[in-house]
Amino acid sequence: MLYLDYAATTPLYEEVIDTIAEVMKEHYGNPSSIHRFGIQAEKLLNSSKEVIAGALGVLPAEIICTSGGTESNNLAIKGAVYSYQNRGKHLITTQIEHSSVKEVFLELEREGFRVTYLPVNSKGCVELESLQAAITEDTILVSVMYVNNEVGTIQPIQEIGRWLAQFPKVLFHVDAVQGIAKLPFQPKEWGVDLCSASAHKFRGPKGVGFLYRREGVQLKPLLLGGGQEYGIRSGTENVPLIVGMAKALRLSVDNLTAKTEHKYRLRRLIVDGISSIPELTLTGSELEEEMAPHIVHFAFVGMKAEVVVHALEQRQVYISTKSACASEESDPSTVMLALGCSRERAVSGLRISFSDEHQEEEIALFVTALREVVKDLTPMLSKSSVRRGNRR
To answer: Are 4 and 368 in contact (CB under 8 A)?
Structure first.
């Protein structure tokens, strides 16, 4: 069995499973309680925030624990916009954001805010010039993802952050779900005011994530109640999962440079393998430094992506189509359309995503399986072309 869908979700580290189980059994107190069990839970909560903050180079008090990436994105964007709407009503994001960002901006448009959706180039990268042309005196928030979850393009976050420094009234939010623990990320140093993360993307548990909020940034709460998480995110904290998240992050960023180099080596093997199959077309930049180390995207044009996925599944190789949050939809990929791809290619996109624990031998097995699948399916393309010709 070869699981190559790490951008959708990841298996937990064994150490994380053990830690979560131990905390559930031994430290089940409510961190808001004043007795011994509550104090123990609170200490675990605070120490977990210290670990997370240390990995990002920020303060523990700047970490807000949430239920995952979707909540973090909603809280960052809506919380900031509602808090600072007296400054202006113009917002900026991109055409390739995750649905948990895109849908929030669509809702804000319905509420009367004006949103500019920045285009990307054919590689899937936002160009600073388009942001410079879009910003106005009415702009209060810019939201750009770190790594595109579908194609894997790295966005120029540091460059954008440096340029936005001249606009102190404009907040900069980054959806870092696919970038944290995969690539270096220092939000405070890079001029980021808000960034979102999800534990299950770096081998932590599902149902937990965090939001970095730069000290001094105001957020209107989306959830009201007991005033936990500095009054910004009410609800009893899930201490076992938060502890597991912190441990997973620590394990993931340990020796990050070596892990990243290993994944880039694997990525080159995958790219070379796909390039050797004439029926396949790679997506994204040819420059390695512009692409995340753990994602490769390509298309088998003319063949629906799910057909390829299921054919590989029969060989016990597991990859995905577009974002896992949208994989059940038969519509073409909006990300690929934004890159300028044809509709036919946009329904044929496939994503491989992997970890630092994968080995070269496994990548060779994948390439062999993919070559066999393409060979088996190619005759279907000519039959499909004949049927389309008959309809004409």
So the answer is: no
